[in-house]
Every structure is written in structure tokens, then in C-alpha cells.
Amino acid sequence: MFLGRSSSYSCESHPTLSSKVFPNASSLSAPESTSRTGALAAAIEDAAVVVEYPEEPIGIPAALLPMDVPAFMEVHIGDEIGPQGRYAIVRKLGYGSFSSVWLARDIQSAPSKYVAIKVLTRQATRLVHTGIIREARILEYIGLRSKFRHGGDKCIKLYDTFVCETARNDTGPHQCLVTEVLGMDLNHFRDRYPGRALPLPVLKLFLQHLLTSLDFIHFGCTLTHTDLRPDNVMLAAPFSDEQIMRILKEDPPEYYPPVLVLGREVRPIVSQPLPALQVPMDQLVFKLADFGHAQICEEEVTNDVSPRAFRAPEVILQCGWNFKVDVWAVGCLTFELLTGSQLFTPEGNAAEGITADDDHLLRIMKIQGRPFPTEFLAESHNRDQFLNADGTLIRMPSKSDPRTIAECIRDSKTMGDSRELVNAAAFIERCLQYVPEDRPDPIELLEDPWLQG
Q: Which end of the chain is flanked by fewer CB atoms within 10 Å, N or C?
């Protein structure tokens, strides 16, 4: 088993920044030959300008940015940021909708070491100040609790936090999180396998590490992650400083062709995740990352959480949710990594008046083979929007595919062993129980016969 190179470093749980184009805008972008497929477009509305970027938009004065366009910090290779210039930027690892991630050298540590720095946009930093985003505080708490309970080592480790109050183009302030350097995310790791389905030994190892981390955050920290998906699980990167130095020498930072922004030339930096080392399978370590949406949950809450494909029914029906939404997501994630396809891919149909929630609820009922339990629906705050008194859907999507989980796995043709298939389906079914209290705790899932086999 060997690790390869990832095409990007996952640092966010949000969709890619959408392109914005204003009519009659005069383009100040670089020539078309410098554009790349899927390039982001940052629109400066007041100046009637469209600037195309290959990655996150930088170089735009903050005063000209529309409120819905994130203000990224313009970071240069060689910048020294943090208290007394503690962290020297040496490489760009990646970016997301609300942050960019950089490899830096901590020049004040003894001996100096490499770290990763997640630099939040101005908008995300404001959410930190209002308490909506609490990732830094949560990671600090995880670090503290890991001293007293097993499993904290399967979560990303935070070293430091600071705020860049000033920045180029007046985009500050920017909250910065300094963490250990990790490798590629699980979404890119699975690209190496046919159909993007993990081999069973790797999948079971991943689940053991994930469930260990969930047991720790649920019962050691009273936290619910709420955003479990392949992008938010990372491979630990066993790089020594000497290996990183050699990589930087052999593969120095790369730049895109210059982009002209309001008469100023800006050189976007290419994301270059560290190439993975050759690691035997028994030395693979998966770590849970991106706690930007994690919530402290001692009681049930009703706000909307989780990516659509991994969203539990109690969230859709506003029944009140707790940490068992993570267990539901484990079931969905297991199916996806086992087959290469998502179990739930709900779609709305405006012509039929069908919402994505309608389709999602139908797909859940078809997989379960039975309607929602009466006692479960009694807790719903919005059941009348979706369900009749008898539990049937008010708006019935025209397409339905009533298959069991075992049938869905069999149709994927990724498993030939019928006994293994049945046991895998049983594991997923345990995670996808309608009633949250009927779903096992992570520690119970660790003892499941399929994982132990």
C-alpha cells in the first residue's frame, strides 16, 4: 500500500466559490490562455470589473469587494506572519471557500519545525468573533481533553492561533490556525482505487480510526462534528523536516501567469500539497479534521447541519438532533467508500413541485422498506410540510428505486463475497436506524462483527 500525490489540500467543508459575472463589465483578467478549467471569478461590482482567478481571488481592495465574495488574505512565499514574524511561509498547500492553507516553518521553535497554517477569510474571521465559527476554541479543547481520554490522537492537532490584523489590500483581520502538517484528504486518497471504492482492509482500518475519534469527541468532549465526509478526514503525513526540505528543493513553489487587477499585477500561487510518502498499510493513520461546524451538544438542537448526502432524517424533519447524526453519517460514508457511490443523492424537481427534502425522505423510506415510526414523527416540528397523517409523502417524486442496502451494494459490483456483503450491509443498517437512540454508539460499532472480521 502506497500513498500518492493529491491534486488539492482539503481545507473547507463548503462548496467552491461560485463564479460571478456582471454584464457590460470591462475585463482586466489575464489573456484567455492563462485561464484554467473551473477557474474562480471574483467580481468587483462597484468598479464593474471581472477578474478571473485560477484559485482563490486575491489582490482586490477590500472596499471594492461585494459582501458575498470572500476577502482572502494575499499571502506571499517568504512572508513571516504571526507574533514577531514567527511563521515563515514556504509553500501553498491549498484553499477552500473560506480559507487558504499554507506550509510554514516555525522559526522560533527549538528546533524549528514545519507547520500548516489555515488562514481564514475576513468574513469567516467575523464569524469567529461572533461565536458562529469556534474551530480554534474547539481544537484547543480537544487538545486539552486528549490528555485524559483515548482517541484524541485521531483528531487534527492545533499548535497555535493568532490574528493578522492588517493585510495587503486592507482585507484583514484574518484568523489563523496553526496545526500539524497532514497529508491528502480521504477524497483524493480514494482516487487511486478502481471506482474510487476502498479495498476492504483499508476501509475497515479507516472506520476503526474514525469511530475512535468520534467516541473521543462525543463522550470525551461533548462535541458533535456534524460535517463528516471524505474531504474532512486526512491522512497523517509522517514527514521529517529533512524530507520536507528535500521536497521543497526538488519541487519549489509554482506560480500562475500574472493577473492584472486594477492596474496592479498579481501572481497567484499554485496549490502544491506535499507528495505522500510510501507507507505500508499497517502504518496508515486517518485523522478527523475541519471542526469549523462542530457543535457542543449536551441537549438536542434543531438547526440545519450536515452535507445533504450525509444528513440524518431528524435534521430534515426538525425532530431535534444530537451526536447520533454523526453515526448516521458514518453509515452513509461507509456505503460510499465501499461502493464508490453515494447512497443518497436527492434531487428536487421544480416542474413537479418536488423539493430535495421530499426526494431525500422518499429515498430514506425506500432504503428502510418501511414508513417513519409514529413516535419519531411525533417529535417533528415540520412534518406537515412533507408528510400526510398516515406518514406518506405529500409530494411523491415520480422516480423511486426501492432497493435494500444489500441490493445497492451488490449492484455496485465492488464486493464478490456474499457473506462479507451481508455483514457490511448489516453494519450500515445499524448506523441508519430511523430513531437516533436505536443507532449504536461509536464504541459499539467498533465491536461490530464485520469490522472485527
A: C
User: Is 45 domain-assigned?
Assistant: no
DSSP 247-274: HHHHS---BPPPEEETTEEE-PBPP-PP
Domain check: are 119 and 195 in the same one?
Answer: no
Q: What is the pLDDT of residue 401?
A: 66
Please report, for the domain that includes residue 156, its CATH number: 3.30.200.20
- Which three-class secondary structure state does DSSP give residue 27? strand
Nine cell digits for residue 77: 512565499
Compute φ and ψ for 132, nearest 5 degrees: -75, -40
| 83-119 pLDDT tens trace | 999 999 999 998 988 899 999 999 999 888 999 999 9
Tell me how far apart the alpha carbons of residues 331 and 434 are, in angstroms, rounded to a whole number. 12
> Is 118 among the annotated ligand-binding positions?
yes
Question: Cβ(403)–Cβ(367) under 8 Å?
Answer: yes
Which segments of 96-194 are extended strands (E)?
99-106, 113-120, 158-164, 174-179, 182-185
What integer best gives the mean pLDDT of the chain? 84
Question: What pTM value is reported for the model?
Answer: 0.84
Q: State whether 87 and 192 are in the same domain.
A: no
Please check whether residues 192 and 226 belong to one and the same domain. yes
d(C-alpha 254, C-alpha 352), whole Å: 49
